[in-house]
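Hallway conversation turned thread

IA: we were arguing at lunch whether anyone had actually written out GNAT family N-acetyltransferase end to end. Turns out nobody had. So, for the record, here is the sequence (150 residues) and right after it the structure tokens. Reply here if something looks off.
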Amino acid sequence: MRWDSAVYKETLNLRNDVLRKSAGKPLLVESPKEERTDIHLVIKQDGKVVGTLLLHPCFTSCVQIKQVAISPTCQGQGLGKKLMVYAEDVAKRLGYSTIFLTGRQSAWNFYRKLGYSELMDDYVDGDLVFKVFKKEIQTVPIVKEMKTNG
């Protein structure tokens, strides 16, 4: 999906409903310019956006997952897991080896079950408690020299 497209604007509405309202944050009314170069992933059912997340490149080997949102009417159906697994696959294909994300306390067990490790102590932002998680998604092959007799 392209930044600032009609589908992208649907994701803003979903993010407002699922993430921003509960965090007491101002609602998104315009497409954030800082997301222009992010990789935008969506899940659609019956032509409607029901899930979204962003992959935000940080370094040549590291990408951040941001703005994970699944419509409340679709939660518990495994869509969040499918979206995360797909995002990891996209990141691998693009050459990233590490993913990190910041998760709300309500999602900590979800991220742990997907193999993410806690990177630091939790912190509070407004009324919500967050924690930073990390996952290695590719290992660099170890090359060993062979000794020969000649």
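OS: looked through it. The chain has a mean pLDDT of 92.
IA: good, adding that to the notes. The chain has one domain: 6-136.
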